[in-house]
Design a protein that fits this description.
homodimer; alpha/beta; Nucleotidyltransferase, domain 5; 2 domains; five-stranded mixed β-sheet; 39% helix; globular
Chain lengths: 327, 327
């Protein structure tokens, strides 16, 4: 008997679905568009079809497969209610009872469970990745935004309302950069991939750095990968972007450490491709901003989830975590 | 049979000891000086004597009393190890195995347990106070410093190292006011009682407010009680101190809410005597700084622990919490 779980990652434009084994390997996967017209019933029907197709194809390979459940990572996903609530990047309005709708299609499964994408990534890290065996850690996901998941005593912190772990929307600099959420100075505006771009232009403006490699790109097209490539060529502006981003990220991590005292902080996302360019200044800044009782104890580690599959794998891990809790 | 627990609150100059019943009433209490010469063995001997005296006096009143254990609130108290580690305000050097030393004197007790004072206050609130029945809440203690205790799923968050909940040492304003810990811009430097004093002088300097009631006090003597009294008389500077302190405190609380999504935040300490002067701007600022998914949900409440006895009562609650965990 081979146990598998379905991982579903709901993004603004695309929904990725995969069948994942207990070691975190994606056996088969598929994609469907996330609707832009708000039609949830049609979407649930298409998602159901896609999941059943994938289950069939896995069972063709190995008849003795048991599908334990479906884990879903979604923006503004509420773990307690199984709902997606007022997600600004999705077309569905209000509160969507996502797990309930999917449960009607899969009454036989042991677990159907949903949380936000950063929490799913943290659980993925705990079940399959670098956080195996850790009971207290934090995951920061650096992408278009900054997400986070906090694990205490081996359990995901969902909080009273199921929405805990929004460290990207804590305030780093009061009155600072405008955040997508409408507030100012949030961690996300400095430490996300677009935050790095903003820092790059801030430095170019300050120094009038017309000879920087980054000065050849428009504000719209510059991204964190280009900044990394320029840093590798020794571009001064690009190198300073990593120093500055690390300085801010380290401060944000220190604030989180002072809350829950984790063993390690995992970092996940595009900017992490830059490795030590971002890790070194982040470590230095975090240490500098920690109380002495926390210093030289807390590891900052790159996520060990595979970038391409991480969202699916993380979502599928929700199922195993849920069944651990039930057993 | 009447169950009681001993609460011990270790302060920089004074140690308060009390016998507390299961409803949080202090039956008898005592004080001994906290030594300034670092002699831990003499201190343990004196503390033991004082505890035994108190137990005897309670047993004289009611023969059928069982002492369940001793709970200790101490600066830099480590719950996991039962140690006091490098506490800057105590004369003991290095790591003191406090619980072990006390256990040798009281081998018969069911529980001897220690944590920092803010965590003890949070557990006190949970066992005896306004947080009864809540599983997810946060306690901020506003005094000479700002301490905090975080409860998730009904359990105190101690973290990997036993030192979680140092929200007073998260950074509110990078590069801001110098903190007692040596860092800059910490929450404590704006939201503690001395932080309010600093804000008062900042406002007087800005406005050259020589006619303010607060302008009659020296920098050394002005305290949060005087600011409250001046606010009640309509003093403009004093009123603005509360507005400003609330603005900063609300921002700090929003950052914490974004971490663990509590049901309520409890505020404890001297500045809370000012009631709505501090609560109203704090609530407004917290709401303003929360993501929409958190708005209009999280209560800010004054602690229901009695100011004079709270530290002893909170420390004693550690014993009941510990025994709940064991049962």
């Amino acid at each position: 008997m081979k146990n598998v779980a379905i991982g579903v990652d709901i993004g603004g434009t695309n929904t990725a679905i995969g069948v994942v084994d207990t070691e975190g390997h994606v056996l088969v996967k598929n994609n469907i568009p996330t609707p832009t017209d708000g039609d949830i019933n049609l979407y649930i029907a298409e998602l159901t079809l896609s999941i059943k197709d994938l289950i069939n194809s896995v069972e063709l390979l190995n008849e003795d497969t048991e599908v334990l459940g479906i884990g879903i990572g979604a923006p503004n996903g509420n773990y307690y209610n199984g709902t997606i609530e007022y997600a600004p990047n999705l077309s569905f309005r209000g509160v969507i009872p996502f797990v309930k709708l999917l449960r009607e299609k899969f009454p036989e499964l042991k677990a159907i469970t949903l949380t936000n994408d950063a929490n799913a990534a943290a659980i993925g890290e705990m079940i399959y990745g670098g956080a195996k065996g850790m009971t207290d850690f934090v995951m920061y996901t650096l992408g278009t935004g900054v997400g986070s998941g906090i694990v205490v005593d081996g359990n995901m912190v969902y909080g009273h309302d199921g929405f805990a772990g929004e460290c990207g929307h804590t305030t780093l600099i009061p009155g600072g950069r405008l955040c997508a959420c409408g507030a100012k100075g949030h961690v996300e505006t400095y430490c996300s991939a677009p935050g790095m771009k903003r820092t790059a232009f801030e430095i170019m403006v300050r120094d009038n750095a017309t000879t920087s490699l980054l000065a050849e790109k428009s504000y719209k097209e510059l991204d964190s990968k280009m900044i990394f490539e320029a840093a590798e060529k020794g571009d001064k502006v690009a190198l300073e972007v990593f120093e500055t981003t690390g300085k801010w990220l380290g401060l944000a991590l220190a604030n989180t450490v002072h809350h829950t005292s984790p063993e390690a902080v995992f970092l996940f996302g595009g900017p992490m491709a830059a490795g030590e360019y971002i890790l070194k200044p982040t470590r230095e800044s975090m240490e500098k901003n920690l109380l002495p009782i926390f210093r030289n104890k807390i590891k900052i580690l790159p996520s060990q989830l595979k970038p391409g599959d991480a969202a699916i794998v993380g979502a599928s891990a929700l199922v195993y975590k849920e069944l651990q809790g039930l057993s």
